[in-house]
Amino acid sequence: MYGRNEMELVLILLYFIVLIVIGIIANKRTKKNPEDYFLANRTFGPFVLFFTLAATNFSAFTFLGFAGAAYKYGFGQYGIMGVGTALMPIMFFIIGRKIWKIGKKYGYITPPEIVGERTKSYSLRLLFMFIMVIYTIPYLAIQAIGAGILLSTVANISIKIGASITMMVIVLYVAMGGMRGSSWTDVIQGLIMIIAMILALLFVSQGLGGFENANIDAFERNPQLFARPGGNGYFTFEIWFSFMLLWIFVDPMFPQLFSRFYTARSEKSLKYSMILYPLLISFLFLVPVLIGVWATATDLDVPPDMILPMMVKNYAPNWVFTIVMIGAIAALMSTADSQLLSLSTMLIRDLKIRNEIFFSKIITILLGIFAIIFVLFFDPSKGIFSTLVKTTFSGLVVLFPTTFAVLYFKRISKWACIFSIIFGELSIIIFRMGILPTFGFLDGILAFFIAFMVLIMINISNNY
User: How far apart are CA 309 and CA 143, in angstroms?
Assistant: First the structure.
């Protein structure tokens, strides 16, 4: 007979094998040309597009960092994530639809390509690519860290070994299947995540004496978590407002999401995704927040990033814990595979390296190795939420003004875009050094407004 841990490990390994098989099938279906390998020949219908967009946006943060942040700060976390991300369809319409139209007309494949070609500036294209790559790599590494944490919980292995195994599996099916392999696995992973979240909510609430009782106990123990500013007074108006804006503007700037706008078969595919996305997100993001808040009324004593898995382990049947763990791994893998592909695509195509598909696979392998190395230097005490806000989110949101201008302005100066990005990124450094005050706002959102103002002022001066 298998023990509990052995059975969970066997199921996870079977899951990994299924993903590799999907990568092999996708490889056989993929033509050996860049458009098909990198964008699946722009053929995704509503079903695949919706699931690949949704699954790509779920990550290790959703199952680990999100519940941990709610455990510390309370229901305010749902406001900034659930509401903020549910408003993403506005960006699907404003940004995604335009990217799809222009990309299909001119054959663009990467995010920097559309920016560089529209402004006729290769320098801007390289700058845009550099910012996307440098700020997405920490996000990719977080997925490896999350995998290591989860597998070390299931089996008696170190975080480093768990991260290495997971990243090798991801690298394998991404390198083989390209966008088709990445997105097909996203569909499977998305369905697993939905099932896992629903089961976690039902069984943890039951284990705590029912939904109502779980909330009452948490409220009696920590009433401050049920209203803003929440735990430690974290969610001031300035922080709340900053996060709401940050999520709306930064999500389309994730290269893994930006690239998927190109893959739609038609505008209809984007419209269906735009309708379904907030319905799914607003529900699923509530689950880790609820469980994180409920955990404050228990005697659980674990690092914040492990709140959700340990709550499920302690208050749900073993089989539910196994599914939730696989769901958490699916969440981080669906993000990591998309990031690997988008990063390798940019590094090959925007640097204009020949034999694109072959070298993209080489870069995918190297990025996977780099993510594993990053695990060695990660400080677990900082937490996933803090790490992402201070790196990826703040750095990428600065790219939004340039993207918007390229898509909508009749005349846009390349210098306006270049200086917008430079001043935006420099302002983050200045805020972090304490040279300028943030007045309680997130430095990333202040940098966003600075980037927009610089772009407008320079563009006006150049045109007149």
Answer: 16
